[in-house]
Amino acid sequence: MQNVTVATCSLDQWALDFDGNLERTKRSIELAKQKGATYRVGPELELSGYGCEDHFHEIDTFQHSAEALADILKSGLTDGILCDIGLPMLHNSVPYNCRAMCLNGKVVCIRPKLFLADDGNYREPRWFTRWERLGEAEDHYLSPALAAATGQQSCLFGDCSIQTLDTRVASETCEELFTPNSPHIHLGLSGVEILGNGSGSHFELRKLDKRIDLIRSATEKSGGVYLYANQLGCDGGRMLYDGCALIAVNGNIVAQGSQFSLADVEVITAVIDLEEIRAYRIAKASRGVQASRTRPIPVVHANFRLVDAKSCDPVSAPLSVRYHLPEEQIAYGPAVWLWDYARRTGASGFFLPLSGGADSSSTAAIVGAMCQMVAKAALNGDERVIADARRMAGQGPDYLPTDPREFANCIMHTAYLGTENSSQGTENFAKGLAEAIGNYHLTVKIDGVVSAILTLFRAVFGGREPRFKVHGGSFSENQALQNIQARSRMLLSYLFGQLLPWVRGNSGFLLVLGSGNVDEGLRGYLTKYDCSSADLNPIGGISKVDLKRFLWWAAKPETEGGLGFGILQAISEAPPTAELEPITDAYTQTDEADMGMTYQELSTFGRLRKISRCGPVSMFKRLLTQWDHLEPAEVASKVKHFFRSYAMNRHKMSTITPSVHCESYGCDDNRFDLRPIFIDARFPFQFRMIDRICAAQSSPKL
Ligand SMILES: Nc1ncnc2c1ncn2[C@@H]1O[C@H](COP(=O)(O)OP(=O)(O)OC[C@H]2O[C@@H]([n+]3cccc(C(=O)O)c3)[C@H](O)[C@@H]2O)[C@@H](O)[C@H]1O
Ligand SMILES: Nc1ncnc2c1ncn2[C@@H]1O[C@H](COP(=O)(O)OP(=O)(O)OP(=O)(O)O)[C@@H](O)[C@H]1O
Ligand SMILES: NC(=O)CC[C@H](N)C(=O)O
């Protein structure tokens, strides 16, 4: 038996928080040592935080990261444990995204990232250069801080591995796992048995499955141990890092961390038997052939044993991986992001204009889920969560946030801001949901504000008064009258967000929450600078179709795995309506009629536009077969209507409220979906082409 205890972790790092990042990194090494580990891997760029973005252009970021690493090396923490630590480093004045392999107070070698992430949310080549010379390494002269801490002048830098007295260790970094020709293939063939992957990998609904498949298949094909470390929480941007540290051996997962947690440091360990890796590899004859002709990569020798001959801990057995339902992911992912955002900004909680409709109710339910997570963490004695909760709630040292409803009452504020066009039904829904969550709730009539604006308008324009469509008004009059209501709600929300802590005898400010979903953003079905403009939006990256499923799930009792907010069932079943126009016997406003398309259709358009990368013509061609129950002319008309609405409203996405990235069909043009602010909504060339295809389809076949 050649047993080794290995450790990996999830850390809630924060961009540029050098003190906090250092403290959490050190704590994770301490915990790994306490659990008997002789090898520990941490997340990508853990000392600076992954999401520093253009702060990676500053020399300070590199220097402070090196100073933090020097602190770790001087502290004695790396004595007896090989640590794979992520940080940005300069080599010959070139910036690299690096792994520093540290042991017994020395830097054994430095491994720069070979393949940078440069799609979707990622722009790594903007800040780092990739190490181009595969299979090569050279001397690196340590910065003054590191040289002083280690007494070393230099170490190896490049594509290299470490040979200890009993095994071979190397690392690959995040994106490299996702590439077709991953470094782990070459490293495994050249004899590496333990591979660490320090990641800064973001949450997306249903993405964990893909990550786990890749890790499983990496070790299934090559044999070996694969340790995955990730960041956790919100590190200052729109992405949520979803932790879920993993340890895989020969195709099996043997340890899994939590995906959504409020803990800021989570360390997992496994006991592995190196002989199991060798036995697995010996039996794969074809692997042997490929391994024997593999070009070796540079090796640094470390006079150190990872195997603990004295350890009697049993070897870790394969476990069945825990996947959260998509509905749970919608609840707990954005909840973790909100928690980090609110505690790190020093806010005293949230204010949400709650209409009783599906969207704002989803936002409220996510805050409710967050309160439940805080209560669970408090019950488990997490002192850091308790301290943050006390501060946020404005409570003293005796307060324990173990009751989610009581905590919600301190930090969550909602208001139903009704007008004469609002219904009793939605008012009751809003009140009922607030009661279920336990939060502070107001019911306010805002007609006085709307009529004050109209009075002013009449005074300015000689008594002229716009009318709703149902009263004979024009399209513009009708829109303007709706927008006054919607925009007044935004003004009132900021007023309440600013003054509610004062009204309740506390201090500080509330973060105003928004509730536009991804489809409304894409279609532009929102009033610019109304209640869709807020400080934060937890659901801006989620489609209405997914939100409905989430509400249905969240209505279930906690004993059945839901959130226990039963009223959400009825809310999810009500037809979506803006309630901005008068209801008459002949007319009730609904979202889908207003938009000229169903949310289901909109979701299809959104996926084809972003995930399938379709312009108008290719979308039309795809839908001709997908919607073969419709005449080609009908499909053409729907596609044109979508693109027209989308193009006319592009400008709204440029000012959209920051939301947590949740889906690959997201349309946040500030980070993920980079498009022009205005484009020709007539699409003359493209639509002519659609008409031609349509005519050809419809012409009688000879
Ligand atoms: N290319 C461009 N670049 C920059 N800005 C541009 C622009 N084109 C128009 N604009 C500006 O945008 C304004 C038009 O946008 P905006 O004021 O938002 O108004 P608009 O889009 O005309 O109307 C808002 C729509 O959202 C609907 N709505 C409102 C509230 C809630 C909900 C719901 O989800 O239930 C739906 C409402 O029924 C209506 O159809 C123009 O007056 C102009 O100021
Ligand atoms: N009566 C209201 N009281 C409080 N807030 C409201 C009210 N009506 C609308 N809002 C706010 O304005 C936002 C946008 O309004 P909109 O009518 O678009 O809601 P929606 O998209 O139909 O979502 P919901 O399903 O929550 O009503 C809502 O999410 C909500 O935050
Ligand atoms: N930081 C990275 O390299 C992350 C990229 C990777 N494709 C991911 O989504 O997880």
From TrEMBL:
It comes from the Eukaryota. Keywords: ATP-binding, Ligase, NAD, Nucleotide-binding. Transmembrane segments: none annotated. The keyword Ligase applies. One of its GO terms (molecular function) is NAD+ synthase (glutamine-hydrolyzing) activity. Gene3D superfamilies: Carbon-nitrogen hydrolase (3.60.110.10), HUPs (3.40.50.620). It catalyses: deamido-NAD(+) + L-glutamine + ATP + H2O = L-glutamate + AMP + diphosphate + NAD(+) + H(+). Pfam families: CN_hydrolase, NAD_synthase. GO terms for cellular component: cytoplasm. Pathway: Cofactor biosynthesis; NAD(+) biosynthesis; NAD(+) from deamido-NAD(+) (L-Gln route): step 1/1. In the C-terminal section; belongs to the NAD synthetase family. This is Glutamine-dependent NAD(+) synthetase. The lineage of its organism: Eukaryota, Sar, Stramenopiles, Bigyra, Labyrinthulomycetes.
